[in-house]
Amino acid sequence: MSEPLLTEVRDGVLEITLNRPDQLNAFTVEMHKLIRAAFERAKTDDDIRAVILTGAGRGFCAGQDLSERDPGKGEIVDLKVTLSTNYNPLIRAIRALEKPVICAVNGVAAGAGANLALACDIVLAAESAKFIQAFAKIGLIPDAGGTWSLTHLIGETRAKALAMTAMPLSAKQAEEWGLIFRCVANDELMSEARTLAEQLAAGATLGIGKTKMAIQAATTNTLDEQLDLEAETQGELGRSEDFREGVNAFLQKRPARFQGK
């Protein structure tokens, strides 16, 4: 049996591939353990400077593997435990990682799979991909951060429509609405994702990570709070080796050699 999650590090980029293509990469408890371990590795390994998350086969992720639990057979399904134990820690880990996370959505992203993608920092999607908030079809609400991500990214009106109707949203429409960064040709998805990840990994990753944190904080901060955060963070970065190297490279008219320190 093949591994349900594949990982590979190249040129400072950790590539994580959901690998249950026959089940559209639907999540199992085992997959949750493996992907959380992968993001913990990204957090603690200084050689990893960026992350790509993608799926194998024709789909990105169909969300939870419903065959693991069958309420139709009388089993009591405590979805609060499922979310608190598995999905919520994963979404928090992605958001808290002070390194860029690129999601390359290679096909259908449904349910929690769609919201896993939206938790990433930069989302590229193949033109054949679709985003589906499938929860309404089984009597649930969007989870894995879905009610938050949709509302913040595209506004209440569109968020409600997508969540209540479970209508598929094409990658192109998702780009036009601002739900994702870019829709790309199917055969160019991974090359674009890798090029972008390598560019970020070679950059001033300390500053890039702090940029991620600052922009996320702006969601709830007032302007005054954000100005204070910028000053505090800039003061910290101004003492970094990356800042010193960046200024020297600019003055010497040469490419900078950032170390993420």
Strand order of the largest sheet: 1-2-3-5-7-10
Tally of alpha and pi helices? 10
Domain count: 2
Helix content: 40-55%
Provide an overview of this structure.
This protein is about 45% helix and about 15% strand. It is an alpha/beta fold and about 260 residues long. It has helices spanning about 30-45, 80-95, 110-120, 145-155, 155-165, 170-175, 190-200, 205-215, 225-235, 240-250, and strands at about 5-10, 15-20, 50-55, 60, 100-105, 110, 120-125, 130, 170, 180-185. The strands form two sheets. Strands 1-2-3-5-7-10 form a six-stranded mixed β-sheet, sandwiched between helices. The chain has a four-stranded mixed β-sheet with strand order 4-6-8-9. The protein contains ten helices and ten strands. The protein folds into two domains: about 5-200, Alpha-Beta Complex (2-enoyl-CoA Hydratase, Chain A, domain 1); about 205-250.
What are the main properties of this structure?
single chain, 261 residues, alpha/beta, 2-enoyl-CoA Hydratase, Chain A, domain 1, 2 domains, 6-stranded mixed sheet, 4-stranded mixed sheet, 10 helices, 10 strands, 16% strand, globular
Short account of what is shown:
This protein is of the alpha/beta class and 261 residues long.
